[in-house]
Amino acid sequence: MKKNKLKKKIIDIFVRHKLSKNHAKICSEAIINAELVGAPTHGLSRLKMYCDRIKKKVINPKPKIQIKKISQSIAHVDANNSIGFVAADIGIKKAISNAKKTGFGLVGIKNSGHYGLSGYYAEQAVKKNLISFIFTNAPPAIAPHGALKSLFGTNPICFGTPTNAKIPFILDTSVSMINRGKIRIASKTGKKIPEGVALDKFGKPTNDAKKALQGVQLPIAGFRGSGLAWMVDILSGVFTGGNHGGKVKDPFDDFTGPQNIGHLFIVMKTNLFVNNYNKRIKENIKRIKKLPKLKGVKEILYPGQNKFNRFKNNLKKEIKISKIIMNDLNILEN
Amino acid sequence: MKKNKLKKKIIDIFVRHKLSKNHAKICSEAIINAELVGAPTHGLSRLKMYCDRIKKKVINPKPKIQIKKISQSIAHVDANNSIGFVAADIGIKKAISNAKKTGFGLVGIKNSGHYGLSGYYAEQAVKKNLISFIFTNAPPAIAPHGALKSLFGTNPICFGTPTNAKIPFILDTSVSMINRGKIRIASKTGKKIPEGVALDKFGKPTNDAKKALQGVQLPIAGFRGSGLAWMVDILSGVFTGGNHGGKVKDPFDDFTGPQNIGHLFIVMKTNLFVNNYNKRIKENIKRIKKLPKLKGVKEILYPGQNKFNRFKNNLKKEIKISKIIMNDLNILEN
What we know:
Two copies of one chain form a homodimer. By secondary structure, chain A is an alpha+beta fold. Helices cover 40% and strands 14% of the residues of chain A. Chain A contains eleven helices and nine strands. Chain A has helices at residues 3-16, 21-36, 47-55, 84-102, 118-127, 180-189, 209-214, 223-238, 277-289, 305-315, 323-333, and strands at residues 66-69, 74-78, 104-112, 130-136, 157-161, 169-173, 198-199, 216-217, 261-269. In chain A, the strands form two sheets. The first copy, chain A, has a seven-stranded mixed sheet with strand order 1-2-3-9-4-5-6, with helices on both faces. In chain A, strands 7-8 form a two-stranded antiparallel sheet. The radius of gyration of chain A is 20 Å and the shape is globular. Chain A starts with a helix and ends with a helix. The relative contact order of chain A is 0.16. The model of chain A has no long low-confidence stretch (mean pLDDT 95). At the A-B interface, strand 3, strand 5, strand 6, helix 8 and helix 9 of A face strand 3, strand 5, strand 6, helix 8 and helix 9 of B.
C-alpha cells in the first residue's frame, strides 16, 4: 500500500477509536516509521492490540496529560494512560526544548504505554543536533541472572548523536538475546529460534518458540546484560513513577489494567564542552571505518546505518501488508 | 600488610614523586579500595606505571586543574594531565554538588588519565543518596564489530543508585568479554584465557593470552556490545574534549605523551519525580530477589553485592602483597 494511503487509514482507525486527530497522526507516523525501518514487530502488527486496549479502557484515548516543571531543565509527565506514542512525543519534545534552552533536558514519564521504537525519538533529538539517551521498560520477558522467571522487559538502551553526516548514530539495542516480537512471529509461523537465547519454563535451554514464550528469554552477556536490564527498569520505572519490578502488563495478553510504563529522556547539547563536536564525531567515525576488516566484511557500520538504509530503500516502495494485517485493518476501519 | 601502613606507604611514594600530600592521599585511597573490592588489576599493580609516567613527564604531578562553570548544573574540567584519580575526584565531587543544588549535575573531564574503578566514584554519589552514570574511555583493547584491529577501550558503563539498604546497586561493567588486566596476568603466568573472548592478530579465535594481547579482544554481544563501546567512546571522548577513536595511549607501554582520557559524570537526585524513591527501589529489589531460582543458585544478586561483600571481608584482613609488587613498593620508596 502507498505510504500516504496507509497513513490516512491508520489515522482514520485511531480517530474511530476516539483519539484526537492530532494524536492519531502522531501514532500513525510512529507506526509507519517502524515499518519503513524494517521493524514490523513495532509497527502494524501492534495496531489491533492498541485498539483492543482502547476498547477495553486500559488505554485512555482522551488523556489529560500533565507536564510538571521541576526546573528549566527537568520535567515530569503524567501521561494519564495515553497511548505510548503520544506520551513519548510530548516527552521528547519537552526534553529537546529544555536542552535547547539550558544545555540539558531531563524528562521522566509515568502512566504511559508501549511507544514503539526508542530510536524514533532519538532521531528527533538528532534532527535538532542533540545527543540523547532514551530508556523505557516493558512487560516481563527476560529472567534476571539466576532466576527461573521472566521479570525484566527487553528494556532497550538507546543512545543517539548527530554525526555531521546524513545518517545519525542511533544505538537502539534491547538487552535481550532476541527480540520478543521475533519469538512471537516464530511461534506463529512454527519456526525454530536460535540456541542459547531462551529457556523453557523448567529452566532448560530451548529453540522451540512456543516453549520460549512460556519460559524465559536470556539477557545478553549473562550477569552484565541482566544488570543493564535492571538499570533500565530502575531508570524508566522506579525513578519516573512508572511500574517496575515485573509489574508492567503484557499489552497483548493482559487487559486487567493500564500498563503504566515509564520512560526517561535525557537530551544534551553536543557543544557543551567542545566547540567542534561535529568535526570530532566525524573524525571518530572516519577513523573507525578505516580500520582493517575481518574477512568478508565490506564496511564497518555504526549503529543506525543499516536501519537508515532500509528506511531509504523502503521509502521508494509501497509498504507490504500481510493478509493477517490487512484483515486487521479492514475490521478496525469498520 | 595492614591497610593503614600500606596507605601511608603509597602516600609517601606519590609524595616522593612530587604529588601534593592531598593528591597522594586521594590516589592512595582509590588504589587501596581497588585491592579491597577484589580488583587488583586496578590497584597496586598499576602503582609503578603511575610513577613511571610521572618520571617520564606524561603525568603532571602538580597539575593546574581548571573547572569551568557552564551552568549551575554543568561543569567542564581540564585536568591538565593530572593522574586520573585526582581529576575524577574533583569531577565526581562537582557533579554531586551540582546535583544537590539543581537536581542534576553533568561534568565532562578532559586531559585526564586512568582513574581506577568507575564504581568507586558511583559509590561516592550513592553515599549522598544520588543516582549516577559514569563513563570513561581507555586505550584500544576491543575491536569494533567487523574490524581486525582493536580501537575501543574496555570502556565501562557504570550506573549506581542507593538501595535504601547497606549495599548500593553499582553496575560497573566493561563491554569487553574479558578484562584486559586479566589477559595481562594470564600472559605473565602462562595461563590460558577462555574461548570466544579474543582473536589473534590474524583475526583467528585464540585462548593464548600472549596472542590475544597482540590481537583483539571481542565486545560482549557482537554488534550490540561494539555499539555500547562506541557510545562510551563518544560520551567520554568526543563529547568531553578527551582523546577518542583509538588515540588514548596504553599507560603501560606508551610514554610518548599524556593519555588525555575523558570522563563523563552524570548525577541525579533520586526524588526528582517521586517522593518515595527509597521505598520503590527497596520494593524493586525485593521482588526480584524473591523470584524462583535456577538450580544451584542460592540468591539472586544485584550488581555491587559481590563487590561489597568482598570489601567487607577484606577489611578484616591484611592486604596480601605479591613479591613482585613488594619489590615495586621497595624500589619506589627509595
